[in-house]
Amino acid sequence: MGAMNRAGLLLPAAVLIWLASVPLACWAGPLPFSLTEVWQGMLARCGLMDAGQLDGRALLIIGDIRLARVVLALLCGGALAVAGATLQGVLRNPLADPFTLGISAGAACGASLVLGGGGLWLARYGLATGGAVAAAAFAGALAALACALALGRGGGSFARETVILAGIAVATFLGAVVALIKALNEESVTSIVFWIMGSFQGRGWDSLPWLAVPLLCGGAVIACRWRELDVLALGDRQAAQLGLNVGRTRLLLLAGASCMTAACVAVSGVIGFVGLVVPHILRHWLGAGHGPLLAGAWLGGGILLVWADVLARTALGGGQELPVGVVTSLLGGPFFAALVRRGSMR
Fold first, then answer.
1. Counting Cβ atoms within 10 Å, is residue 208 exposed (0-12), middle (13-18) or buried (19+)?
2. What Rg, from alpha-carbon coordinates, does the chain have?
3. I want to staple 162 with a disulfide (CB 3.0 to 4.6 A). Which of 68, 152, 168, 197 is the partner?
């Protein structure tokens, strides 16, 4: 069966699974609710049902806590997978993922500056720490991207090899800065480490604007240029002979993918392997064409992260939960090792 035929079967199936995951993920949790209560809570939260007809506890837990986490996980997972597929196409490197350019290290550094002492200063002046952490993480991610692109610029264009090396250098330096912040603020180590591990705990509808606006901007850039990703896959020389401005196209696609990644990291912390694992799985089934691949990555990344978050909040008893970044790493690590073992990374 050809890649197009498989895409015609797999993408509709992924849409159905994506939609079914919303109520099922809201149903899962330490406090039991019936599926009817789940549907009612979702409808009431969306304004499609009178909230007075529903128990207040169900409305709070399902509509304000679980549904918010599911929506954030769907958006973050899809964005990370799309960013990973885009970076792998732009850099022509199967090891590329949303953290190749030091974006996660920049976000972690920005958040650590707030969590490691800045939060006390903000509280003193009556400012919200949660929003400040997201804003600092987003700014740090974009600053890291700017540094990596500035270092990787050579000969008036962005060479993919130098950009990767520059990203590694920036990530290493910023990782040392985060370690220094933790060493100087021992009382904040727990909050910094938990944020860096990635989690949707405590995130709600107020985090949605921080995520939605950058996702729309970055996603629009990638959606308008997915055909150019196919041209870049031919190589820089061949792409230039076809009339493509390689440096400008690479910069725009890197900026779009990085903007999406920065938004996700700003809201959920560092969540690894989604942008690496999902595109590799889908490329095997859907082929190398970036149209079906990006659509499948959006759906598959959201599904993966939603159910990883369900596992994170239900695996432990007593109301405790694991960081979802730990869950994705536990799932992605063996998969990555299997890829290397099979030689499919070459």
1. middle
2. 21
3. 152
What would the 3-class secondary structure string for 304-325 be?
HHHHHHHHHHHCCCCCCCCCHH
Six token digits for residue 187: 């009382």
Is residue 220 classed exposed, middle or buried when 0-12, 13-18 and 19+ CB atoms within 10 A define those classes? Answer: exposed
Q: Provide long-range contacts, Cβ within 8 A and 24+ apart, for 202-206.
A: 202/130, 203/68, 203/69, 203/72, 203/267, 203/268, 204/64, 204/65, 204/68, 205/64, 205/68, 206/130, 206/131
Distance between CA atoms of 244 and 246, rounded to whole angstroms? 6
- The DSSP secondary-structure symbol of 19 reads H
Cα separation of 87 and 218, whole Å?
13
Q: To which residue do tokens 């960013």 refer?
A: 83
> What does pTM read for this prediction?
0.88
- What pLDDT is stored for residue 319 in this prediction? 72
Ordered DSSP codes for 234-268: T-HHHHHHTT--HHHHHHHHHHHHHHHHHHHHHHH
Determine the pLDDT at residue 1. 55
Say if CB 222 and CB 267 are below 8 A apart.
no
* Residue ranges in the chain whose pLDDT is less than 50: 120-128, 345-346
Distance between CA atoms of 155 and 50, rounded to whole angstroms?
62
Question: What per-residue confidence (pLDDT) applies to 68?
Answer: 93
